[in-house]
Amino acid sequence: MKSRLKEKWLFTLLSFFIVVTASLPFLSVYAFPKSNTFFFIGMLALICFMTVLIQRYLIVLPLYVISYLFTLYYYFPFERPFGFTWIGVFAQRLLQTYAKMFSGEINYLPDFFALSIILFLLILLCVLFIRYERWALGSLLLIGYLLMLAVFNQLNLSIPVILISSFALLFYSLKQIPTTLTPKKKSAFVLLSSFILFLIAGISSLFPLMIPQPKNFLLTQSASVRHYMNKQGLYRQIEEYGSSTASKTGFSENDAQLGGPINDDQTILFTAKQTSDHYWRVETKNHYTGKGWTNTSEIVTHSEEQTLSISTNPEYQGALAPETTITLTFRSPKEYLPYPYGNTAISFDEIGRTEQIKEKQRFTLLDSPTSFNFTWQKPIFAQESLAQVPYTFSQDKQNIFVPVTTPKRVEELARSLTENEETLYGKVTAIERYLKQNGGYRYSKTDTPYTPQTKDYVDYFLFESKVGYCDNFSSAMTVLLRSIGIPTRWAKGFSSGEVTGGKNTNYQEYTIKNSDAHSWPEVYFEGYGWIPFEPTPSFTNTVSQPETTTTSTSNSQSETTTETISSSEMKNTSETTASSVATQKKEETSRSTLSQWLPILRNVALVLFTISLVVIGFFLKKYFFLLRFRLHLILYPKQFSKAYRLLLRKAEQLLVRQIDEPLNEYAKRFEANYIAFHGSFIQLTVLYEQALYGGIPPEEEGLTELLTHTARLLTDLKKRSPSS
Hints:
7-stranded antiparallel beta sheet, 4-stranded antiparallel beta sheet, 25 strands, transmembrane helix
């Protein structure tokens, strides 16, 4: 027992460090009391100690079972004493939970169920590490487990992964130490290896912080793949099975704290049968806090009219498109009313009672209708007319308010972007263009970081993270415009959705999902009212080609052709496939789809290529030694002693050399166990001892062939059992 402890104590210590490093994140994720952590670590130490000391399975297995059950009892006593009664209750709970998971009643692992599995696996790993010294398999399993834990719970577990990798490499290096080394040299080797490995581990953990370019490059290159997976609902599925802190897409009532990643939710909210696509506004907010958006007033009013009339631009006296009818159907009752930009009229017979919060431009449906019809006329804003509106520093304090805590560089950026523009429209589009195209910002729902507590939400996005989604871009444009005296407010609702029916008819069915939730800024133009703009990349507020619009009068009809900006033409070009009878538009959609798939296919091909290399490397692993040895003979053809030591080290991996065993005796014992050598290893050993002790160099003739032949035999013997 003492000799076994002396031989295995380092492996046991490393095994203990590995399993403890892997178990701590698990305890944290399931929020087990921190006061119990030392008990758990102590039990792992006891299991490692029993594994190294007790070799007989008949003795150690009952001890494993007792340790396993007592640890579970310590965490989950179920108000019963430790004994068979408790074991029966615990087993019953496990079976009941398994039945619920199998039936789909629950889709997560309860803490007692998870602990029973993880503790069992940790005991098996201790045996694998200490008794069988299978460091590679055990470490890969733990690293894979930590990666899954990180994905399902959105944790940064890079340090535990680096530590386990370092411990595993140190484990490997200990196995390579020749048994002929003195204890002093062994200790020096272990200390030096430990220092080097943990120095590398420290540099690895600090490298992404000191040099973020590689991380940013990987995030950028993989963005299209992760965006596609998010659209397919992968991250949403992960969130349902984990305890993720990430939000999901959808219309949120509380916008006081914005930031952080969001996962796409493909739940259908409502459908709309209509003649064209457009954005759906639900409400606006006017008070920016530095962290998000609120409203300064939420006074509720009730309408006494027979028809609910909504005009997003009441002071606008320009052209309107012909009136059309829209049929809106909710999948499940909603309290909010989504409505398009323009003039909307809804009979109360259709929707029942409503409440309005004028400050938010929001309408609440009190009777929760499931389907209703309404009429709508979209506004047609002439670009040339908007460009004639002069810029003046507004006195509307509410809609140009910026917190005093917002850094001054936000205003400085806005002024530098607009200093060459004189009109209001020019300044607005300059900032919109900067955020959307020229500023180097990246759109991502999955990579958006949380805003640090000490940072301003907009400032952090503009100057530090430069990664975000609609909330980041719309808030940034709103605050930038406000900082130079342009009245702007934050609007939210839904983008146009996806065409799901009637593609070849005038009336098409659009399906709007939670993932279509969106936000954008509205800018006030005198004589026009609040005009929506779109700074978010991959979303488009298109400027249409000149088109013919018909305006009715009492006596005649006149046709007016104008280049227009239509709020109803805003659409999400990356997430929505718009139906159009125009062949040119179909071709553009096809090209857009192809351009989206190309980076995805490229990244998939790269992943498959990497996997292929790993698989090929796995099957060629046993030949690495032979390739390395041949390379050594090419580079150092005169260094026979070093070549022999490489062969000896490989032989010691197959058959352990006893302490103080003479080299010639070891060679004879080796060939007695591996008869395929037919004296070649003994012959090389004799030549090595003659060169080492007698100073007689070996003859070069046939030496290279003998060395290569022996190396090949050692390579082939890697997975063979020694003959008796």
